[in-house]
Design goal:
Blueprint: H1 2-23, E1 35-40, E2 54-63, E3 69-78, E4 87-99, E5 104-112, E6 118-123, E7 126-138, E8 144-154, E9 159-160, H2 166-194
Parallel strand pairs: 6-9
Antiparallel strand pairs: 1-2, 2-5, 3-4, 3-7, 6-7, 7-8
Helix pairs in contact: 1-2
């Protein structure tokens, strides 16, 4: 009888973990690349990209791995509706720029920020958005890979929207439901054993 109760608890626990894994999505889609991407900003470390304008961005790309790589393409993505639907806003060839170990390249591009973007996380009264950079590279054998990095940008002029807490609420409901179910099942089993 005790084994049956334990297997029920284990099943409930595994189902809860599975559902929680479906709900909570990773924020950063980081690859295991040898490239390091750094956004070069102002002296204060603030990156500004006003809504409805083009902003000049400078990115340092460093090869920290043991092998040489060739930079194929740079891409910039934004999520204007804040629903996880990243949109490509800029893409350009990097002309197979050759990066040796511990050598860096500077990529400068114009980032167009839509005027209708809904920003979150107002910092000092300035709305904030996320920029996702994809650097496509190739090794000397021609095998391609992508390094992805994400940066927060201050976006003056953007409409502020509250962060979506639905996924956290669903996670709490699932965990609470599993705990209540386990408690009820435990009490019923104890009651039967006592009888």
């Amino acid at each position: 009888m005790a084994t049956t109760v334990l297997s029920r608890y284990a099943s409930l626990f595994l189902i809860s973990i599975f559902l929680a894994g479906l709900i909570v999505q990773p924020v950063f889609a980081q690859s295991g690349s040898q490239l390091q991407i750094t956004l070069i900003g102002s002296v204060t470390g603030q990156y500004y990209a006003p809504a409805g304008q083009n902003s000049s961005m400078m990115v340092e790309i460093m090869n920290r791995g043991p092998g040489d790589v060739f930079l194929v393409r740079g891409e910039a993505y934004l999520d204007p509706a804040l629903n996880g639907n990243w949109q490509l806003v800029h893409s350009e060839s990097t002309d197979d720029f050759h990066l040796k170990f511990l050598q860096s390249a500077i990529w400068t591009f114009d980032l167009p920020v839509p005027s209708n973007i809904l920003a979150v996380n107002a910092t000092a009264g300035v709305p904030q958005i996320d920029l996702q950079l994809h650097i496509v590279y190739a090794d000397p054998q021609g095998q391609q890979g992508t390094t992805i990095a994400e940066f927060a940008l201050n976006a003056p002029g953007a409409v502020i929207q509250q962060a979506n807490y639905t996924s956290w609420l669903l996670l709490i409901v699932v965990v609470a439901g599993a705990a209540v179910s386990a408690t009820v099942l435990y009490r019923r089993t104890r009651k039967r054993d006592d009888e």
